[in-house]
Amino acid sequence: MTTTLSSAAIPVSYRDLYSKCSNNDEPIHIDVYKSLLSQCNLDNTQLKIIWDLVGPQRQTQNAVNRTNFYKTLALIAWAQQGKQISEKLFDSFTGDEYPTPKLADLTPVLKVKENMFIEPRPLTIENYQKLIEIDLIVVQLVPEKKGLFLKYSEYLVASKRFGSKVTRRYNDFVALHEVLLNRFPYRLVPSLPPKKIIMNDSQFLLERTRGLQRWLTLVCRHPIICHDSILAFFLTDEGSDVQNRIRNTFRKVPDEFMTSDLSATAKEWLPADNGQIAVSRENIRSLVNIVGRLKQNAESLVTQSQESAINIEDISTQLKNMSVMNVGSSQNFIENWSNVQRCFDGMSKDLHGISQTCQTRADFEQRTVCEKLGVLYDILVAHMELCERLERGLAHDHQVALSKLLTLKKKKLQGAIRGIDSESVEKLESKMLAQENIISSIDLRTDFSLYCVHMETQLVFAYLGTMPSILASFVDLKTKTHFELLDLWRNLQSQYSILEGNKSNGKGYKK
User: Do 359 and 504 touch, CB atoms closer than 8 A?
Assistant: First the structure.
């Protein structure tokens, strides 16, 4: 929709609503926008028309800029007046001001905004549940490989928060990882699972799919990164050549320090004891080794259960083969051989059930124990890598920031950042120019980086709070599994005892 609005026709109420719904005068987030539409008492057909005309567009940022927000309010008002919704209403408008819509209680709208843009503060174990509620990510391997000559795998990525399902290649994840590190150099951006290692291809793809889901889950549930337009683009864009477009669109976006409202005051948020950060860092280094060993042991137990299931299934198969062998009616080397064969058939079925139980329980243990330990291990390693990155690259980050500021002053930023609407680019420009003195100070960048590490440390400890539930799941699962298998083996034992006790009188194995 390209119709422009006359500033003289914009009611004061429009500007007030934008101010209430916006976070620091930025475009209205999609979730806040949805909540506002739910308060205007229109039917779904009318809401869909408004959404299609002026709502968030996936190819941009999943947000509504000021102009489209004003158009939304005007369209709501006209719809409430009984008019047919169309952009022609703007062309034919002759009044002094656009009509004011009647909205129900704005409290739910403001609550959504408050929950999304709450001031950053150290996380605690108690609010770990809020991290889970941010988003639910599912990454699934697409069964068929693509490509005529060079085959490659694709992944179906689903986001509950955005209600989206998109197809991505591994290199698309690589591009996202690069731009996130550029935008958030002092945040937890874990390493991706490896591109290729030498192992069974199907097993490797299964492990990499799990790794990509853990990685994207950690990123999408990060309380700061989750609100960035980079992530929205990756989770919703349905165009082709995602890896190149995501790089071209976002590689020139300034890092968090250059646009954060906390850049000048980060020192005030640091702990009074300067040694606390260093102590936490050493503790996390130790936890990397401990949790890594726990993860390795849990995975080894799962592998043993899977191998046991395979071996028991093979025993079941061989007994089944033996139960149908025709050794000849004249052969009497074994008394009541036909009855014994029926026994083998029954044992084969019981062993098959035991094998299936072992496999099912192993798969469940992989999901409920190993994957959760994997998430914890990944975020611990990410913290260790963050501290190493900070030591290596702070001076480099500062030089890059100054270079970007110089580029901005030469009026090249508009052309450098493509794919983001002009209003958002202007917002970045004005904020960077307003913070020129802050950006130029290496001391303030150092304070900001330490503040971020302090915050990320709290995030790590929030995830560490999941250890009791992981261990409880492990013990509970093992207990139930052993009791279930004990019942199955005892049933098999009783049936075999019947065979042993009655083979002399011709009574065979009975189910």
Answer: no
Structure tokens at 481: 């599994």
Of the candidates 381, 397, 394, the one whose C-alpha atom is nearest the C-alpha of residue 182 is: 397
Q: What is the DSSP letter of 465?
A: T
Phi, psi at 237, each rounded to 5°: -65, 135
Going by C-alpha positions, the residue among 237, 208, 51, 201 that lies closest to residue 139 is: 208
Query: Which element (helix H / strand E) includes 159?
Result: strand 154-159
pLDDT at 67: 86
Indicate the CATH number of 293-505 among 2.40.50.100, 1.10.3720.10, 1.10.418.60, 1.20.1270.60.
Answer: 1.20.1270.60
Quickly count: other Cβ atoms within 10 Å of residue 5's Cβ.
17
The pair of three-digit structure tokens given for residue 429, joined into one six-digit string: 């420009």
Phi, psi of 148 (to 5 degrees): -75, -45
Low-confidence ranges of the chain (pLDDT < 50): 58-60, 120, 122-125, 148, 412-413, 415-419, 504-511
Place of tokens 């493509």: 418
Q: How far apart are CA 426 and CA 433, in angstroms?
A: 11
**Residue that the structure tokens 């002026």 belong to:** 54
Taking the C-alpha atoms of residue 461 and residue 449, their distance in angstroms, rounded to an integer, is 18
Domain boundaries 128-261, CATH class: alpha beta
Instruction: Identify which of 238, 224, 254, 253 has the alpha carbon closest to the alpha carbon of residue 172.
Output: 238
Dihedral sign (CA 388, 393, 395, 398): negative
pTM above 0.85, yes or no: no
Domain boundaries, the chain: 12-116, 128-261, 293-505
| Distance set, CA 278 to CA 24, 378, 381 (Å) | 34, 20, 16
Task: Please give the helix or strand (H or E) that residue 140 lies within, else none.
Answer: strand 137-141
The first and second tokens of residue 349, run together, are 């079925």
Comparing CA positions, the residue from 181, 261, 164 lying closest to residue 219 is: 181
User: What is the C-alpha separation between 80 and 50, in angstroms, rounded?
Assistant: 12
Beta bridge partners of 158: 138, 165
Specify the fold of 12-116.
Answer: Recoverin; domain 1 (1.10.238)
Q: Which of 505, 487, 494, 496 is nearest to 342 (CA)?
A: 496
Whole-number pLDDT of residue 270? 80
